[in-house]
Design brief:
Elements lengths: L8 H100 L4 E9 L2 E8 L2 H12 L4 E14 L2 E12 L1 H13 L6
Antiparallel strand pairs: 1-2, 2-4, 3-4
């Protein structure tokens, strides 16, 4: 028996094409959604990696800041220790200067003079004493002029009085102490023993 198709072939073709178009549109939507999702996940991954790098850098910066602070503290401690060492060295070297000072002071006192006080302010030494006569004070001043440890003697005050039928002169004398200056000139020579002049 013969089958005859009485349907419109154009309508069937149109329905088939419409079905193909719908399938293509669904497939395109699926591909588009997949592409957007893939891009979204890739961006999130890149952002999280960059965030991890930023966190690592922040942690490293904090550690470096702590190390810098420790280095600054060590520098401060070093400067304090160096300052203490300089003070100790000055005290060590001034011990001999003090001995020279008092030894020379005792050696310069002539007979007939008694010292009542000695005071040093900077390089200036103020000596207060009593002498049997003005001539002894004069010889005392001359002995300072010949000393390598003292310079510029200057008589500030002299008072003459009579006690037990004897004349006495109380005096105040200022002189420059050269022990510190001598110590400074001796230090460079001691610091470079191998250097020949």
């Amino acid at each position: 028996m013969t089958k005859i198709n009485l349907l419109d072939w154009r309508a069937e073709r149109r329905a088939r094409r419409l079905e193909q178009f719908r399938n293509i549109m669904v497939l395109a939507c699926i591909v588009a959604v997949g592409t957007v999702a893939l891009g979204y996940f890739a961006m999130n991954s890149a952002i999280s990696q960059q965030q991890a790098r930023n966190d690592y850098l922040k942690q490293q910066i904090v550690e470096i800041d702590q190390k810098i602070k420790e280095i600054e503290d060590l520098e401060r401690t070093k400067q304090n220790l160096l300052a203490r060492m300089r003070v100790i060295e000055e005290l060590q070297s001034s011990r001999s200067a003090t001995v020279h000072f008092f030894d020379e002071l005792v050696n310069l006192i002539p007979d007939g003079i008694t010292l009542s006080s000695i005071k040093q302010t900077g390089e200036t030494v103020t000596i207060v004493g009593v002498a049997e006569s003005n001539g002894r004070i004069s010889s005392y001043i001359k002995s300072f002029e010949g000393s390598p440890w003292f310079a510029e003697p200057k008589l500030v005050v002299i008072r003459t009085s009579a006690r037990n039928n004897q004349r006495e002169g109380s005096f105040t004398l200022q002189v420059k102490n050269l022990t510190k200056a001598k110590k400074k000139t001796e230090e460079p020579a001691a610091a470079a023993p191998g250097v020949k002049p």
